[in-house]
Each structure stands twice: as C-alpha cells, then as structure tokens.
Design a protein that fits this description.
single chain; about 550 residues; 5-stranded antiparallel β-sheet; binds alpha-D-glucopyranose; binds calcium ion
Length: about 550
C-alpha cells in the first residue's frame, strides 16, 4: 500500500477561540491563527484541525452551527478562512475543518422554520419532533438524558400559544438533532462538503459521527444508570462513549452516510480525508468507521482513556495496531482535546473521583503539578514513537495543565449550567494560550481580556519563555516531532522487547529503541546514544514517569 500523508501525519488541533486574538476583543480568531503559522512550522506539525468557526450563537462554543457555509463575525470572514488555508498550504501544512452534522443551532433557518410550522409538516421532518407522553403530552417522548445533563427533549409552544411537541437534542437545547433519514438533510451536507472542498480544505473532522442515526421508534434506554463506561480515567463526558445498546449511538445505518461522503471526497484531487469523532466501544466496532470505502481515520479514544500503566498501555497499543490494520487504516493516537481534562493533569488523577469522570467542585486532592507534568511528557514521548497518525491539542506543547479553579461567574460550558454546577465541564482545557510574559493576557490578545480568565501562573508556560529553554516542554515536543519525521516512526513497525519489570515498556521502532518507565523506581539504561528523553537523567538511570528514545 502506498503511503498517504494521513497515514503518519501529526495533526494539531486549534480551538480558535483560545489560540490567538488578532483584534483585541478577547476571543481568538482566524487572523490570529494565520499570524502564528510560523510558530506551528517551528513546532513541526503536518496538518491543522480547526474547531468550528462557522456562524453560530456560540451556545456550545461553535458546535452549534447556524450557517455551515459562512464564518462567524467573531472569528472573521470567509476571506480570512481563505487566507488561513492559503497561508497554511504555502508552508506545507494541511487544513482540516470541523463538520457538525448531528445537530444544528436552534438559530439555523431550518429550525426557525420548523418552530413556526405545524406538527407533521415537512419543515419539522428535518429535525426530530415528537408528541409527548402522558396526559396532554406533558412528559418527554422517552427517557433519554442529554450528554450535558437534563432531558434530551425540549417542548415547544405551538402557533395557538399552547405547549405542543417536543424536539430531540443529544446535547444542549440550543442544538436540535437533524433527522438523518430525511433526504433533504443528506443533500444539505453534501453541499456543505462541496463548499469547503472547493475552498481547498484537506478534510473534515466529523463531530459526533456515531450519533446521526437513532434506533427507529426511539425506544427508552434500558436502565440508564447501569451503562458501562469503559476503562476510563477522567474524560469529561462519560455518557458519550456508551456501548451499542444505547439507541442513539452507533446505529449501523450511519455507515451509508459516510460511504456517500467518501465517494464525494474521492472525486477531488489531493487526498482529502474524513476523521471520525466516534466514541464507540470496543475498538473492533470503531474499525467499522474506517473501512476502505468509509472514513480515513477515527480518533482512538480508547488510547486516551487508558491509565498511565505499562500493561494496559501495551494492550491498547497492540489491539489498536491490530484492529486498524485489519481494515487497512492507520491507527491514530491522542491524549488531549477540547472535551477532556488536559493530560498534564488527567494522567495523574489517582483518586476515586466522586464526579465519575472529569472534574468538579467535589473533586479532592489534585495532583502535584510538576510530577503530573513529568508524567505527561513521558506519555507524549511514548505516543509520538508509535506508528500511525497522532493528534496534538493546542497548549499541550507548552505543558499546560487543566485550569481547574476558574471563578464560577466566568464559566461558559453548558455542562456547568445544565448540571447546576455539579460538573465543571470543559472550560478548564479551553483557557486561552500564553504566548509571552508581560502582557495582561500573556500575548493572547492585544486587548486586556480573554474570554475565559487565564490563571496567574499562566505566564510561566509562555511560548516565548520556552523557546530557548533546552529543558522546556516546547523544546521536548520539537525534538520529538523532528526525530519522529527523520526516523519515519509514523510508518514504522513496532516490535516489543522483553524487560523484567511490569511497569516498564521497551520496544523498537526502526532505528529507535523506546524505554518507558511508568513506575516509581528508576531503571538502568544500556549506555547508548540518547536521541531524546522526557526528563533529565544521570548515570544512565531513567527516573519513574519518564520515556527515552535510544539509537537502536
Ligand atoms: C463533540 C464536540 C464537543 C461538542 C459536542 C456537541 O463531542 O467535540 O465539543 O460539545 O460534540 O457538538
Ligand atoms: Ca478576536
């Protein structure tokens, strides 16, 4: 099989609100990204995935789209999007945009039309409107619970001024789900794909790709509180990765949709790709999303959810490589994104969390930050040595921790509101990036504010400070990425080597031997050429929570 760019690409996720603000309004924007492209070249990534910047009332930070073919004024204009795509391409960086097909914003003209249309009308049939249960239809049509908390249904007021039908929303009430059995919905999205492909994007990250089709009849979820959550540590949205028995996740008919999209993409030159955000267990089912005539990649959330321990890591690495290879797809690897606790905090959470997964006011004993960062650096050095394609989330190259203690009044995530403050939600991984010391917003904005407040210690993570510091996390990432490319580890082959300790992993990938110490006790290394190490070591002793690449 000929190697394609996406088989081994390192793809950097930009969360535009929080990357860089160009005009001083405190919200990151497209021109801010374009102005910082050289920093990303210096980092050494191959492609960008940019979270949604389309027209949206921003009730879920842009994952609530009111117009899929226009840029929201807070992020700029279509001309700014063109400039970003062109600027990236000029530097050899590909651009993937975020497509949100499961739901629109309630501000989308189709939903506004549906609200004033009658029950049973064609306008309502583009979404999922149903009559309620109980007397006068006063109870929701079924027992489904929104991922952000509360019921998955909201009741509308009909033209006669009376409460009427209910509409379905897996997420916030401002995010009504489309009815994907409706051909009009399918054709809308084919047009959206063409629109962005014609503008030159290299692919799409497909939001909630496992949710588009619901089981016919919308049956109740059976015993919702006994749903297994998989082997997670601390993702924020446990319900999102429920098994197939849940009637709104992973229905077989979703695959037809992606086969149609794949055909469309294959008609374009330049190897455009689709990547699935599909939280499905087990990996063998996830492989269905990346069969040869479907998507190209799927996020490996099973890897993200694996605790920092050698045996579970070896198992997930083996099963990922075997499972994706069985359908001819590359494995992907990811440790952080805009929905989960940053891995510089998450991998060190070791308590029984009363929040279930994630962080909230009831979370005790947060990890010691410098120890947690050492572990995160070791985890990244492991991930970037693996064959396949890797995803990085903006700010992890600076070693940013989760910003846990934001003032309550500053919080924005709908999860916080829909759970009445029980779960913090995802604001803590979305705090704007520090670029330099010394300014009010650490170089994020020419103005004085950022849309989420930056913690006082944020300046210590500033990119400018780290650039010339040989021990910084930024320097580590740059070294890992350049070696990964030079040694072609992304297209390499992993071969385990024996080591007589249960908390240590050793493997060979081409010309590199990688040693990962997930335990506490140091280990003695063979004296050989060190390519890169995640933490300093002396006398050939590798500390706990450290990874080293040696020349094979
Ligand atoms: C995905 C996004 C998340 C968003 C949700 C609803 O999971 O990654 O940020 O809230 O979909 O669109
Ligand atoms: Ca701005």
């Amino acid at each position: 099989m000929q190697t394609q760019w996406w088989h081994d690409a390192v793809i950097y996720q930009i969360y535009p609100r929080s990357f860089a603000d160009s005009n001083g309004d405190g919200i990151g924007d497209l021109a801010g990204i374009t102005a910082r492209l050289d920093d990303l070249v210096e980092l050494g990534i191959d492609a960008l995935w940019v979270s949604p910047f389309f027209r949206s009332p921003q009730r879920d930070a842009g994952y609530d789209v009111a117009d899929y073919c226009d840029v929201d004024p807070i992020f700029g204009t279509l001309a700014d999007a063109d400039a970003l795509i062109e600027g990236a391409h000029d530097r050899g960086i590909r651009v993937i945009v975020d497509l949100v097909p499961n739901h629109s914003s309630s501000d989308h003209p189709w939903f506004q039309e549906a609200l004033i249309a009658a029950p049973g009308s064609a306008a309502r049939a583009r979404y999922i409107f149903r009559d309620g249960r109980g007397e006068d239809g006063a109870l929701p049509p079924n027992n489904w619970q929104s991922i952000f908390g509360g019921p998955m249904w909201t009741r509308v007021i009909e033209a006669d001024g009376q409460p009427g039908q209910w509409y379905l929303h897996i997420f916030d009430s401002s995010q009504p789900d489309f009815d994907w059995t409706n051909p009009e919905v399918r054709s809308l999205f084919l047009d959206v794909l063409r629109f962005w492909l014609d503008r030159g994007v290299d692919g799409f990250r497909v939001d909630v790709a496992h949710g588009l089709i619901k089981e016919p009849g919308l049956p109740d979820v059976i015993e919702p509180d006994t749903i297994s959550l998989g082997a997670g540590t601390a993702t924020l949205e446990p319900e999102i990765s429920a098994p197939s028995s849940v009637p709104y996740w992973g229905q077989d008919e979703v695959h037809e949709i992606y086969r149609e999209w794949r055909e469309l993409l294959d008609g374009y030159p330049g190897n455009r790709i689709l990547v699935a955000e599909a939280w499905v267990d087990p990996l063998s089912r996830l492989a269905d999303w990346v069969r040869p005539d479907e998507m190209h990649q799927a996020f490996n959330f099973a890897y993200l959810e694996t605790p920092w321990a050698a045996r579970p890591l070896a198992e997930i690495i083996d099963s990922s490589l075997a499972t994706f290879t069985s359908v001819g797809a590359p494995s992907t690897w990811v440790l952080s994104n805009h929905d989960v606790v940053r891995h510089a905090t998450r991998l060190a959470l070791s308590f029984d969390n009363p929040q279930g997964h994630g962080i909230g006011p009831a979370t005790p004993n947060l990890p010691d930050q410098s120890a947690a960062l050492r572990r995160a650096r070791a985890a990244t050095a492991l991930m970037l040595a693996l064959p396949g394609s890797a995803y990085l989330y903006q700010g992890e190259e600076l070693g940013l921790p989760e910003a846990i203690h934001l003032p309550d009044h500053a919080r924005q995530d709908p999860t916080w509101f829909r759970t009445n403050g029980e779960r913090y939600g995802r604001d803590g991984c979305r705090v704007p990036l520090p670029w330099s010391m010394g300014s009010r917003t650490y170089g994020f904005s020419p103005g004085d504010n950022s849309w989420l407040p930056q913690p006082d210690h944020w300046g210590t993570f500033a990119r400018d400070e780290q650039r010339n510091d040989t021990d910084s996390t930024l320097t580590l990432y740059r070294r890992l990425l350049s070696l990964r490319k030079e040694l072609q580890l992304g297209t390499g082959r992993l071969q385990w080597l024996d080591y007589p300790r249960d908390d240590v992993l050793v493997f060979r990938n081409g010309r590199a031997v990688v040693v990962v110490n997930t335990g506490r006790e140091p280990i003695r290394l063979p004296e050989s050429e060190v390519l890169v190490a995640s933490s300093a070591f002396e006398d050939w002793m590798l500390r706990g929570d450290s990874t080293v690449w040696l020349r094979a």
